[in-house]
Amino acid sequence: MKALLQKIVAQTGGDTRNGYIELRYHRRQSNSFMAQRGRVDVANHSIVEGVGVRALIDGAWGFAATARVDEASILRAIDQARRNARAILASRGKKESHLQRGKLSVIDWKGPGFDELIAMPIADKLGAVINFERRLAKSSSALHTARCRYNELLEEKVVVTSDGAAASAKIALPEFSMSAIAERDGERSTSSRGAGVSGGWTCLYEHPSLENVVEETARTAVDLLSAKYPEGGKKTVILAPAVVGLLCHEAIGHTVEADFVKSGSVAQGKIGQRVASDLVTMADTGRETIAGYAVGNLPFDDEGVETETTTIIKDGMLVSYLHNRETAAEFGVAPTGNARAWLFNDEPLIRMRNTFLLPGKSSLAEMIAGIDDGYLVEGAGSGQADSNGEFMFGTGYVWRIQNGKKTELLREATLSGIAFDVLQTVDAVSSEFRWDLGTGYCGKGQPAKVDAGGPYIRCKMNVGGRQG
């Protein structure tokens, strides 16, 4: 496929009249299973394949796509994309627009685990998921419901552009999650755990978040039946890696995506300004090297730019936004490899990959010992944030900390605040680190597979709870 796209671009792309051309081939094979009551309740399989085409003529973008991947169909899609660009050009006139070149990829890359998942029989995957569900269901008589899910995406991509990108990749993205509902005297509580990786079956089940996954999921669900709710107010809290990742992604990461910056996010105009404690360094990367197991790894983005690690906040100072090639040219910086499209018929948008806080030097034990009255917040739940960085997140459960000791387990809480204000209060960052949002999908007009995580951090924020 790469040779075909290179041939087509050589024939049709790159002159002044026809402008820039970008071809993106994408084939995705997906499998999804859900086990409940000792059997598979859901089993889905799909294959999607096609080529997306973007044309840039005098500052006007045109897009088209074809689900047929022969030469004639791709040529027709190129012609349609150029007609679309010229129609936009006719309606609004020429616009000054440039694409920052950056480092365009020419690699052919196969990610870890791709061959392993392709070769592994579906029956073996189904059997393993059913076995996990049965173990969970039998682990406690108090469990009302046990569910296990397994999903995998097997991605093949080729990106070829008229200015030099010519790269291909094969990436495996498996994920596993488990949930339990416990019931006693009409009271119910829920616990869930999961993980995702850029890798194979073996890599997935070695993920630290899945350590003792059956026992921990069941125990937490049962223990929460007798747990109280936390007391509300502004509290000193320690956020676990999953919650740190949620904060990084939702409340900060989106505000530094350059298209949101241009629209007036809270990060606009703050490059070089202090936005956090000097203990805070935050980054986004397509090539994870810090702890292993991240799901958002990719060698190049959907514009053909090689991915890198982009430091967003360094020692508390905002130092970079996340860019595609066009916004990088507008801001006069290098592209960061953050242009991503979900399917071949989606246009690339500026998206995160693996977003995280870097570890520090404290230990979790030391951080707990430094709190007289506060909470250790575990189990990231759903959440939302706006362009001002104001957020509200749900959590699975929290632990009360009193006089420097972790004491009782408490039910779910709601966290809220303004992200940059919260980061200013960070006074301890742990050396422990974990990627912990690998089963999540980011939504921004289209989905994207992302990961996030970090160390434990100690800070102050609003905790919402209730008596019970």
Verbal overview:
With 468 residues, the chain is α+β, with helices and mostly antiparallel strands. It has two domains: 2-224, 2-Layer Sandwich (PmbA/TldD fold), CATH 3.30.2290.10; 233-464, no CATH class. 24% of the residues lie in helices and 38% in strands. The protein has helices at 2-12, 71-92, 114-119, 122-138, 201-205, 213-224, 241-253, 258-262, 325-331, 364-369, 419-424; strands at residues 20-36, 39-57, 60-66, 108-110, 143-161, 166-184, 187-196, 233-239, 282-285, 309-314, 317-318, 339-340, 349-350, 354-357, 373-385, 390-402, 405-410, 414-418, 428-429, 434-435, 441-443, 447-449, 451-454, 457-464. The longest helix has 22 residues, at 71-92. The chain is globular. It starts with a helix and ends with a strand.
Q: How many angstroms does the end-to-end distance come to?
A: 61 Å
- Total strands: the figure is 24
Strand residue content: 35-45%
Shape: globular
The largest pleated sheet is described as: 7 strands, mixed
The average pLDDT score comes to 94
Q: What structural category arises from helix and sheet content?
A: alpha+beta
Low-pLDDT windows of residues: none
Helix share, percent = 10-25%
Q: What is the alpha-carbon Rg in Å?
A: 24 Å
Number of helices: 11
Layout of strands and helices, then pairs:
Layout: H1 2-12, E1 20-36, E2 39-57, E3 60-66, H2 71-92, E4 108-110, H3 114-119, H4 122-138, E5 143-161, E6 166-184, E7 187-196, H5 201-205, H6 213-224, E8 233-239, H7 241-253, H8 258-262, E9 282-285, E10 309-314, E11 317-318, H9 325-331, E12 339-340, E13 349-350, E14 354-357, H10 364-369, E15 373-385, E16 390-402, E17 405-410, E18 414-418, H11 419-424, E19 428-429, E20 434-435, E21 441-443, E22 447-449, E23 451-454, E24 457-464
Parallel strand pairs: 4-6, 8-15, 14-23
Antiparallel strand pairs: 1-2, 1-5, 2-3, 5-6, 6-7, 8-24, 9-10, 9-14, 10-11, 12-13, 15-16, 16-17, 16-18, 18-24, 19-24, 20-23, 21-22
